[in-house]
Design goal:
Blueprint: H1 2-27, H2 40-46, H3 48-58, H4 62-69, H5 73-87, H6 100-113, H7 117-124, H8 128-150, H9 156-170, E1 175-185, E2 204-211, E3 217-225, H10 230-235, H11 238-245, E4 254-255, E5 262-263, E6 266-268, E7 279-280, H12 290-316, H13 328-348
Parallel strand pairs: 1-6, 6-7
Antiparallel strand pairs: 1-2, 2-3, 4-5
InterPro entries: HARBI1-like (IPR045249), HARBI1_dom (IPR027806)
Family: Belongs to the HARBI1 family.
Region (Disordered): 368-387
């Protein structure tokens, strides 16, 4: 009985001590609301957005502006207008909110330069959790604002336009797109084992995509583990299931140019994809006759468009040059926001009229492979040394 009473008294004493400690913790005032280096006055006075961006605009240095944020001032204003309402925060008595323009600048630099969010924290003078929140919210806003106009759902009509353009630019009739997979390098997900470890000896997720003849993505699926093959990843996409079931159909069979032969419309891929009525792959083997070699040449020439798409995407958004250290959900968010920005800038900055000569454009002459040579400038972009 005495032991039980003594135990009860000890428990009550412990509860009183904990209660007293909590009360002191509640009464303790913050020494500062925000660290001095992140104070709004320092950010306005020394942060890169209101200083560097302002200097670039005032000096009318379009080339350096485009190098900094991967777009011209006109495209920047257009994009800012699309996401402004989604990023605007109301002013409170405690602090001045970070403007939508600065939020967009932080996120674009995160994607374009491949820096860690801790590096951005010091560069833009925001707290780490603030920086993480800004990039996540802004990427979500970018995807929501651009997906309907710049990553539309596939339809038979726009596939017809793609096929016509493929023939006029790359001399391959009935081709409705080029397909391939790209490994997005990431730090090993928690408790994932070897699920995301690929044949290239790093951890990744697979970006499966189809593009048109003008370096724009028409279909994107992301998130599959890097250990899977391209053919297996594609077969599990909704697009492949719809093609197999007939829920989605490519344009009707069309006559080959200069002949009376009806031939199906198709998507071109490499040897990793199965041969189907809607997927065309090259003839296997080395000892082929002349006709088969000519066919493989034409097919490979068209298929290289998707390789160039991936190369330009990574060259412009250099976050893909280093392992991405974040959750799988945010890696998918990064991929989709970069793809959306790629298509937006391909249309808005370049006018969708082929590779342009103006050096401030998103894709310039020489960025993509020209003719039959692997000479696109995206192949020569060095990986960043400071992350």
């Amino acid at each position: 009985m005495e032991e039980e009473l003594l135990l009860l008294l000890n428990l009550q004493l412990l509860q009183l001590l904990l209660l007293k400690k909590r009360k002191k913790t509640r009464e303790r005032k913050r020494s500062v609301w925000v660290r001095p280096i992140f104070d709004v006055s320092r950010r306005i006075g020394q942060g890169p957005y209101l200083n560097l961006m302002k200097e670039l605009i005032i000096s009318n240095d379009v080339i350096m502006f485009a190098n900094y944020v991967r777009m011209t001032p006109e495209s920047w204003n257009c994009l800012l207008g699309k996401v402004f309402n989604k990023l605007e925060k109301s002013t409170t008595n405690m602090r001045i909110p970070i403007s939508p323009a600065e939020r967009l600048c932080v996120t674009i630099r995160y994607l374009a330069d491949g820096k860690t969010q801790k590096s951005l924290m010091y560069e833009h003078r925001h707290g780490h959790s603030t920086t993480v929140g800004i990039t996540t919210e802004t990427m979500t806003a970018i995807i929501d604002a651009l997906k309907d106009d710049y990553l539309p759902n596939l339809s038979t009509e726009n596939m017809k336009e793609v096929a016509n353009y493929f023939y006029s630019r790359w001399n391959l009739p009935n081709c409705c797109g080029a397909i391939d997979g790209k490994h997005i390098q990431e730090v090993a997900p928690y408790k994932s084992g070897s699920t995301y470890y690929n044949y290239k000896n790093f951890f990744s997720i697979v970006l499966m995509a189809v593009c048109d003849a003008d370096y724009k993505f028409t279909f994107v699926d992301t998130g599959a583990p890097g250990s899977r093959s391209d053919g297996g990843v594609f077969s599990d996409t909704q697009f492949a299931r719809d093609l197999d079931s007939g829920a989605f159909r490519l344009p009707p069979d069309a006559f080959l140019p200069g002949s009376t032969t009806l031939f199906p419309n198709f998507i071109v891929g490499d040897e990793a994809f199965p041969l189907k009525s809607y997927i065309m792959r090259p003839y296997p083997g080395q000892y082929l006759d002349h006709q088969k070699r000519v066919f493989n040449y034409r097919l490979s020439r068209a298929r290289r468009i998707i390789e160039n798409c991936f190369g330009i995407l990574a060259a412009k958004w250099r976050i893909f040059f280093t392992p991405i250290h974040t959750s799988l959900e945010k890696v998918n968010l990064i991929v989709m926001s970069c793809v959306s920005l790629h298509n937006f800038l391909r249309v808005d900055s370049d006018g969708g009229d082929g590779v342009t000569v103006i050096t401030a454009r998103y894709i310039n002459v020489g960025d993509a492979d020209q003719g039959d040579e692997d000479n696109g400038q995206w192949r020569n972009v060095p990986a960043p040394t400071d992350t």
